[in-house]
């Protein structure tokens, strides 16, 4: 039967059905599906597909056809199957077939074929042809097992269709990986492999033990009764019935035969595949386990009990031994240690070359590991590996064929061939390892000797791929040279115009090469069978015939190019351009007529070599490069001469490569050969070597003496190459001082380097010089280490001298280095040489020799310890200097200029403390003393800051206005108050002040409100201090005048403000050196200052700290004197007027004095001002009491004035009366009496 494609709608029958269905579907609606459409579709499809006549198909259309089709059309996921079955016939009459339509599949041996009808959508649309809505899939049965049919379906249908779709998308490897396409391909390959294994499995005969019916009924009855079956459940008569016992005996004999059929089963491992061998042993183990399970059943046990009861021991005793079950089970179980988890599927399901290599690694890793544990015979393991080789060959051939090697670009082809070669190499490596292991196991198991040899099935494929790779390489070189953009065409296009690819013969070389390649492309180049090899040979012959015409064209063009070349360089350029084609003998033979030109060119090149040699080595660039590469002078000169010699040989070889062997037989060739031989004699370096030997022999260059030597400095130098003795110090070592140096001649270093390079150059150095060089080489590492250590130590001493501040910290490390120097003064170089000799001769000796080696090793250990000590000194010195300069010193200096706030000081001291803690953790010596000195320096800086802040505070406290330190005046106070009344007095409700405008620690360090705008962009320091005035209100309440807050509050506030500013420094935490010392922390008796409060006792002048308190007391006295005037007005309410008047009495002088004092006292409150300013620190506000005192004063003044007026009036009246009385009395006296009495009075 012709195969039917899987896609629908391709046959004429389907097209006719489609038109019929369209015509018949016209009257139907889209709401239902007409079964008649499906009937017509089946009648058009089934006859050509399953070979049925329309009359035979009538059995499909039974009474349930319409309902079945309707469900199929309307239900999602529904499937219909057309099953063709063959009816059994008794005679040889023609077969009859029956056809059924069903929605459920059931496999039967009578099934011939099954056609599956699968919908592409959830439902069938009656308006669309069924050919576009249905898949049909032919599932063959009959004589074939389903395995072959399903394998063909997957491998030739589904899998290629999936690969074709993925290949058409053109996605990259990364994109495919994200979509899971490689995993899907692997699953397809595994499914294909599993179906193939099902075909190849060796059927193990199933064993069913025959049980007597009586025994079965007895066991059944015992189970129903819930007891364990035994022979008591059998009728007693049967236990002695010979017929019954003979039947049981025959059954046991049949058991033995059937079990032996399984236990003695084997297979030829050399036939079939590796998977068949693996599956055979695994299946055999399952079959044996099944037999063991049957033998453990109660029926078998009862049969054995019956025979034992009848004394028929010959049937029971040797039963297990006769079957061979135990031995077979043990053997199969041991074999399956190798077969279980055998990673063969990783190879068989590989989808690319990388997977093949991984599969090989897994397989041989498993075999080499498990074969040592399993007794699987080597004679079977060898064919098994050959079977794996056959599987490997099939998989590799399948993958390489799928790539279509000759159709791929050359880069891809070369990559595939590289991978293939690597895979073959991997196989060879594993085979070598396997054969070695197999030989070893054969010896250990004492097996019969067999030749351990693997005949790989892929050998022909490997040879073909290697040959194909070389062939494709040569073809690619030819194709490139004949291509349109390179090679001959490109070279000719510069002056030949359009017809560059055509020659006299009219042959298009590019097209000719392509056509020759097409001959080979059309065949299967990987077919290594006899027929395939013959096809390959014929194709290669045809290819060579076509290519030979191209070679003739290339030869003609090459001769033309060489003939037009103006000099030898152009000839060599032509040769370099076409050298890829010189592998072809025909082209190689066409260039031998240009010997003369090339010989002249080589002569010119040799002349340049002569000039180069005559410039001498010391003046060449090679000399400087040798110094850079640490090549000694003699070895460098020899290498330079040999380089020239190699260039000379290369020029000779170039001529030979181009012109062929035997070129020196020609006349010109002989002359050129003679010149090169003469020049080569000049390049002989033996004379240089012998002169060096003579120079070394006449000099004493032994390695002896002490390690160190003391030298006297003749000129001033810095301590870099050597160091001063430990007692001296200073940055520069002047003339006359002594230095410590390493007693080692630098020429000895050059000696062993010369010897080393000369030996590499294959010179025979005398034994004495070699030993001298060996001695130098032995001590060279130690000498270099000592010189570098001494140089480093000198640098560290200079560095410490420049940074004397850290000298105490690194003193311990410096002392340790000096102790090492003192220790090394007694060591000699001889100890190092003898130590190596002793170690060489006593390495395998007795214990005494080992102890001697340990003793001598102390000298080597000294060099290491000395380098380690100086390295520690270097690290510690550099570390502490960097830490001191970058952290400690910088932060200490910033203490003198930082903002006067506790945060700024604490941050800087915290950084300093952190650095000290780091020094403590790193174990620096004398840290406590060093920290105390550093603390003294910090105390000096902080003491300066305290002195400065006290001075600034006093200046600010005594200031009457900004920038003015004169005595307080009422006008200045009023101006100051008026400038800040909104910010100072208004903010406190004209009731109470808030102290200094700074938040230091908890209450100081801020910025004054009056200077906020002026200083908002400046760093806050002490000279920006602004003191906010304390506002005292003179208030009257319940006719009592008092001051709020009292004067004592001002004193306490000012002292607290002063303490806050001083506390910025005094409350700072002192730096400590022992925060990590647990012993000091545990000692409660150790008491040390934790802050800088003691600085207040260390002022050089005691008046510095006394001055602010004196200013406060002076200010308090002024304030008290002024406030007392206001408090005197309390008497205005306390005094009774009558008491005052009675005290005054009638003395007008007292009354007049009182009125005068009242008038003067009015100046205190009778003013337009409402407050009194005492500098910038205090303000007395009397606005509240001013009016009331004024009113009360007016009342008192009015009352006193009125009373005074009454008193004055009365006095005036009395005086007037007295005057009148006196007048009257005077008028009554005579003038004469008065005159007469006058002298008497005199």
UniProtKB/TrEMBL annotation:
Coiled-coil segments: none
Molecular function terms from GO: dynein intermediate chain binding; dynein light intermediate chain binding
Region (Disordered): 1-30
Any single GO BP term: microtubule-based movement
GO terms for cellular component: axonemal dynein complex
Domain Dynein heavy chain tail: 245-836
InterPro entries associated with the record: DHC, Dynein_heavy_tail
Polar residues compositional bias, start-end: 7-30
Protein family according to the UniProt entry: Belongs to the dynein heavy chain family.
PANTHER family, sorted: AAA+ ATPASE DOMAIN-CONTAINING PROTEIN, MALE FERTILITY FACTOR KL5
The name this protein goes by in its record: Dynein heavy chain tail domain-containing protein
Biological source species: Ephemerocybe angulata
């Amino acid at each position: 039967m012709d195969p039917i494609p899987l896609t629908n709608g391709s046959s004429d029958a389907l097209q006719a059905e489609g038109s019929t269905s369209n015509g018949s579907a016209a009257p139907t609606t889209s709401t239902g599906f007409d079964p008649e459409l499906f009937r017509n579709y089946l009648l058009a499809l089934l006859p050509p597909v399953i070979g049925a006549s329309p009359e035979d198909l009538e059995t499909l259309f039974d009474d349930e056809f319409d309902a079945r089709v309707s469900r199929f059309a309307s239900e999602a996921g529904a499937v219909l199957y057309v099953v063709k079955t063959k009816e059994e016939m008794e005679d040889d009459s023609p077969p009859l077939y029956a056809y059924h339509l069903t929605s459920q599949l059931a496999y039967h041996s009578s099934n011939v074929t099954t056609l599956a009808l699968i919908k592409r959508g959830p439902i069938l649309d009656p308006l669309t042809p069924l050919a576009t809505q249905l898949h049909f899939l032919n599932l063959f049965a009959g004589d074939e097992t389903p395995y072959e049919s399903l394998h063909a379906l997957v491998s030739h249908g589904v899998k290629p269709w999936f690969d074709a779709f993925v290949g058409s998308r053109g996605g990259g490897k990364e994109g495919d990986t994200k979509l899971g396409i490689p995993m899907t391909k692997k699953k397809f390959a595994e499914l294909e492999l599993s179906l193939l294994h099902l075909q190849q499995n060796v059927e193990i005969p199933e064993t069913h033990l025959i049980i007597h019916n009586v025994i079965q009924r007895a066991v059944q009855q015992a189970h129903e009764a819930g007891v364990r079956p035994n022979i008591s459940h059998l009728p007693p008569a049967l236990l002695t019935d010979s017929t019954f016992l003979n039947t049981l005996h025959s059954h046991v004999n049949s058991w033995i035969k059937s079990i032996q059929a399984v236990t003695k089963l084997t297979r030829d491992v050399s036939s079939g595949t590796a998977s068949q061998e693996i599956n055979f042993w695994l299946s055999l183990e399952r079959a044996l386990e099944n037999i063991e399970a049957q033998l453990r059943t109660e029926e078998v046990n009862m049969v054995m009990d019956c025979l034992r009861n009848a004394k028929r021991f010959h049937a029971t005793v040797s039963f297990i031994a006769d079957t061979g079950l135990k031995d077979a089970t043990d053997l199969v179980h041991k074999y399956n240690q190798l077969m279980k988890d055998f990673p063969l599927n990783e190879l068989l399901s590989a989808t690319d070359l990388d997977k093949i290599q991984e599969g090989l690694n897994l397989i041989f890793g498993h075999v080499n590991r498990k074969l040592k544990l399993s007794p699987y015979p080597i004679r079977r393991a060898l064919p098994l590996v050959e079977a794996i080789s056959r599987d490997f060959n099939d998989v590799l051939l399948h993958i390489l064929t799928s790539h279509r090697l000759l159709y791929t670009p050359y880069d891809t082809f070369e990559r595939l061939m590289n991978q293939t070669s690597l895979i073959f190499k991997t196989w060879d490596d594993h085979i070598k390892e396997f054969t070695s292991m197999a030989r070893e196991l054969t010896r250990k198991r004492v097996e019969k000797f067999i030749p351990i040899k693997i005949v790989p099935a892929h050998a022909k494929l490997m040879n073909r791929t290697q040959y194909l790779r070389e062939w494709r390489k040569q073809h690619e070189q030819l194709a490139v040279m004949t291509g349109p953009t390179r090679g001959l065409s490109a070279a000719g296009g510069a002056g030949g115009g359009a017809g560059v690819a055509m020659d006299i013969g009219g042959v298009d070389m590019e097209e000719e090469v392509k056509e020759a390649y097409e001959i080979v492309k059309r065949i299967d180049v990987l077919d290594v069978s006899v027929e395939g090899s013959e096809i390959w040979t014929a194709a290669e012959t045809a290819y060579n015939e076509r290519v030979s015409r191209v070679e003739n064209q290339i030869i003609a063009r090459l001769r033309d190019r060489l003939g037009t070349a103006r000099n030898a360089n152009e000839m060599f350029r032509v040769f370099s351009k076409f050298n890829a084609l010189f592998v072809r003998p025909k082209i190689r033979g066409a260039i031998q007529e240009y010997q003369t030109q090339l010989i002249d060119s080589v002569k010119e090149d040799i002349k340049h070599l002569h000039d180069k040699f005559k410039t001498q080595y010391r003046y060449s660039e090679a000399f400087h490069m040798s110094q850079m590469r640490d090549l000694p002078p003699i070895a460098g000169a020899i290498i330079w001469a040999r380089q020239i010699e190699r260039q000379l040989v290369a020029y000779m070889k170039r001529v030979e490569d181009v012109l062929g062997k035997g070129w020196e037989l020609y006349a010109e060739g002989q002359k050129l050969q003679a010149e090169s031989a003469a020049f080569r004699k000049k390049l002989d370096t033996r004379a240089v070597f012998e002169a060096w030997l003579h120079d070394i022999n006449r000099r004493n260059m032994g390695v002896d003496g002490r390690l160190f030597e003391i030298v006297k400095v003749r000129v001033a130098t810095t301590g870099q190459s050597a160091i001063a003795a430990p007692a001296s110090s200073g940055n520069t070592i002047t003339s006359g001082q002594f230095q410590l140096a390493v007693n080692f001649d630098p020429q000895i270093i050059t000696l062993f380097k010369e010897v080393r390079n000369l030996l590499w150059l294959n010179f025979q150095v005398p034994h004495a010089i070699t030993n001298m060089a060996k001695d130098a080489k032995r001590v060279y590492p130690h000498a270099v280490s000592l010189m570098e250590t001494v140089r480093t130590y000198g640098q560290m001493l200079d560095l410490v001298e420049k940074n004397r501040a850290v000298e105490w910290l690194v003193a311990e490390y410096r002392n340790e280095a000096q102790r090492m120097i003192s220790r090394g003064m007694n060591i000699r170089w001889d100890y190092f040489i003898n130590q190596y000799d002793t170690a060489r001769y006593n390495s395998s000796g007795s214990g005494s020799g080992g102890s001697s080696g340990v003793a001598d090793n102390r000298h080597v250990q000294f060099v290491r310890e000395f380098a380690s000590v100086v390295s520690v000194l270097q690290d510690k010195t550099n570390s502490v200097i960097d830490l001191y300069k970058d952290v400690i010193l910088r932060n200490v200096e910033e203490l003198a200029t930082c903002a006067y706030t506790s945060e700024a000081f604490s941050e800087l001291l915290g950084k300093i403390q952190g650095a000290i803690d780091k020094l403590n953790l790193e174990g620096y010596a004398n840290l406590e003393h060093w920290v105390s000195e550093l603390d003294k320096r910090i105390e000096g800086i902080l003491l300066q800051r305290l002195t400065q802040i006290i001075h600034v505070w006093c200046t600010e406290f005594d200031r009457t206005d900004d920038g003015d330190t004169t005595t307080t005046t009422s006008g200045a106070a009023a101006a100051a108050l008026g400038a800040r009344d909104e910010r100072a007095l208004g903010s406190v409700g004209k009731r109470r002040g808030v102290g200094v405008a700074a938040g230091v620690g908890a209450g100081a360090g801020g910025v004054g409100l009056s200077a906020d705008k002026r200083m908002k962009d400046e760093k806050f320091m002490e000279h920006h201090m602004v003191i906010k005035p304390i506002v005292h209100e003179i208030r009257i309440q319940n006719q009592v005048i008092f001051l709020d807050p009292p004067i004592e509050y001002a004193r306490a506030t000012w002292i607290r403000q002063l303490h806050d500013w001083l506390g910025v420094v005094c409350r700072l935490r002192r730096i400590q050196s022992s925060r990590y010392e647990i012993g000091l922390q545990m000692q409660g008796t150790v008491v040390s200052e934790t802050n800088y409060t003691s600085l207040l006792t260390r002022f050089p002048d005691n008046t510095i700290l006394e001055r602010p308190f004196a200013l406060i007391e002076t200010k308090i006295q002024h304030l008290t004197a002024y406030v007392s005037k206001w408090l005197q007005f309390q008497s205005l309410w306390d005094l009774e007027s009558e008491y005052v008047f009675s005290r005054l009495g009638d003395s007008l002088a007292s009354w007049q004095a009182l009125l005068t004092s009242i008038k003067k006292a009015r100046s205190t409150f009778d003013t337009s001002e409402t407050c009194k300013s005492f500098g910038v620190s205090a303000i007395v506000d009397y606005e509240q009491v001013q009016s009331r005192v004024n009113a009360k004063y007016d009342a008192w003044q009015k009352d006193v004035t009125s009373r005074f007026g009454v008193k004055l009036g009365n006095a005036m009246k009395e005086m007037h009366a007295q005057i009148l009385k006196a007048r009257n009395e005077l008028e009554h006296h005579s003038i004469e009496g008065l005159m007469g009495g006058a002298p008497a009075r005199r």
